[in-house]
């Protein structure tokens, strides 16, 4: 389901499975039949929301069967000794024979273009020959100045001669400023004759913003991760899949895309089950609490027109809107509950009930649950007869 933006296709590469395999490798436990079924369901649902290619690595060998038949990109590890050792132990060639791309970190590519290293690791040479025109070179840099140094180096020229580079992945970019993206991306375009994949880190929680800006400057693909990455590994996070595809859809309104965002709650449940990662309830797009609201002005505005406070309806992302009662609630919120329960209540009773609600909320330092509200209402009706 490739997104078309400004009459050009934008490919979405998802890196979620590399994290799932990493978590499982630390647990040293084989996948159960249930987990394998969950993996298959997760792949299908990610495709439904807009993913085109799944990035894999050596650690995903434990569930390659579940990924069979789906578009894949194999990434070599950052440790060249690990690559060589694992190639011999597990047979990388069998694993990646159906992959569309090979992703090679820049320093790994530079290491193996040296003749004696290339001859030692002949499998690497065979694979890069087989996958000509489907090579992604990944440069992990903090800013564009460091990237330009790489692209003008002798080693880059040697890599370009050794491989037919189809895509340059720009990863990291923790020290860039959005206002200068136009000039900087244009300069990179002049230095390379290939597509550009955008993979910024999210350590400053700005990856979605700079990715949206980069789309305007002819970036060809975006590397993402559901939830942006495992929650406790801020340094290795990237553009959250759910944020960028929703931003593209609602801010850029591309043609030729009909994704199904209503499966986000199911994806979240599968992701949490497979990784043990717990997604924050207020996480944009996929947080379970993002459509819960309390204050009177919000309640009144949403009752009149939900677009006053919501960029999209909760049903779009498979969520529901929930009104809470608490210390900030006003008459409008209370009226909504009374109408829902078909309870007739006078203005004086409503005022007394609001005071009771606020006292309860302050005392317990939380919102009032529905059953507690019903009890408070019953008490007020008894003590304040109409």
Description of the structure:
With 386 residues, this protein is α/β, with parallel strands linked by helices. It folds into two domains: 3-275, TIM Barrel, CATH 3.20.20; 292-383, no CATH class. The protein has helices at residues 16-27, 33-49, 64-67, 80-96, 106-112, 115-120, 122-130, 144-151, 154-162, 181-191, 207-215, 241-252, 264-275, 296-304, 331-341, 347-364, 370-383; strands at 3-5, 8-14, 53-56, 72-75, 101-105, 135-141, 165-172, 195-200, 221-225, 239-240, 292-293, 322-323. The strands form two sheets. It has an eight-stranded parallel beta barrel, surrounded by five helices. Strands 11-12 form a two-stranded parallel ribbon. β7, α10 (181-191) and β8 form a beta-alpha-beta unit. The longest helix has 18 residues, at 347-364. The model has no long low-confidence stretch (mean pLDDT 84). Residues 285-361 form the 2-isopropylmalate synthase/homocitrate synthase post-catalytic domain.
